[in-house]
Amino acid sequence: MPVYIHDIATAVPPHASRQQHIREVMKQHVSTDRKSEAIIHRIYSQSGIETRHSVIEDFVDNHHGSLFFNGEAKENPGTSARNKVYEQESKKLFIEVGQKLLEGRTSFSKEDITHVITVSCTGFYAPGPDYELVKSLGLSPSTQRFHVGFMGCYGAFPAMKMAQSFCTADPDAVVLLVSAELCTLHFQFNNDIDHLLSGSVFADGAAGLLVSAQSPQKQALEFQHFASSLVPDAEKDMAWTIGDTGFNMVLSSYVPDIIQKNMQPVLEPLFQQLQLSKDDIDHWALHPGGRAILDKIEQTMELQPDQLKASRQVLSRYGNMSSATILFVLKTMMDAGLSPNQQILSMAFGPGLTIESGLLRVHQPEENK
């Protein structure tokens, strides 16, 4: 039974910061000598990012915020203080995306929703965002609720697989899936290269889907196949732990090379199973974990620049919003226009090092062809 993504919606916090401005803040407050200042300048200047959004104002031009700065002095807030902001601000983004999915030009009403899946790795509270969506959107109290937590940048993939399973088991099921990540709350004033790399790319944002096996009335994305892979001996190169001053993200400078080395071994079994080749893929929806990752994959897979256009656009406009980012990429592709039956290979990379992939096909209703 085919299952489809009927609608995609996204949202970002109101506070936008230019990457160049954040670079200068970092040089002022983190660099300890000319060498570290030069490293920060190079990392930020070559990131491929123009703008990032945050729920806090600390890095907005001409503003010194309240979480990380007290006037001109920098602060190092504890995990509790950071998580309190997460609880307050993530609710707004979860609800905004849910409202967009149900109140815009969408395929379903709130009465149709049977399942809610939420995704996040940047904070915790209970009752959680799944509960908030049911309550705030006026969904049925009997709506089944699930939360995918702390899986990192690939978290949207297990959530999509769950949605596909629910809809395959029940042809009348309609799944509301929302991911929201507030990565900037866990910024660290740390001169370690791994912290500098993660601090240069992560941002805040939310995105969601409406998923169902019901026949689409407009262009949709049909789930074809999902695959998972673990890269051996790479768990220390991308990790996510809870510390006393926020969550500590390890993003090794080796990650792009590790992903590049393992792309062919990961994709070959998938292509063989589906009887496809690289040339059968029209668009590559890659999680833009960083510019170097996109560059390495483009080089290794011999892709054309247009095939990664959406991923690079999302990286430039928003940065890396962890699990929500891949949904931004898919929406950017759909907004730009897709042709019927085109194949999209989506991929994300996260702690483990885990590589998740999903093959999607562009579905066009007969009356709209």
UniProtKB/TrEMBL annotation:
Residues 227-361 form the Chalcone/stilbene synthase C-terminal domain. GO terms for biological process: polyketide biosynthetic process. It holds the Pfam family Chal_sti_synt_N. It comes from the Bacteria. Residues 7-213 form the Chalcone/stilbene synthase N-terminal domain. The active site is at C153 (acyl-thioester intermediate). GO terms for molecular function: acyltransferase activity, transferring groups other than amino-acyl groups. Keywords: Transferase. The keyword Transferase applies. Belongs to the thiolase-like superfamily. Chalcone/stilbene synthases family. This is Predicted naringenin-chalcone synthase. The lineage of its organism: Bacteria, Pseudomonadati, Balneolota, Balneolia, Balneolales.
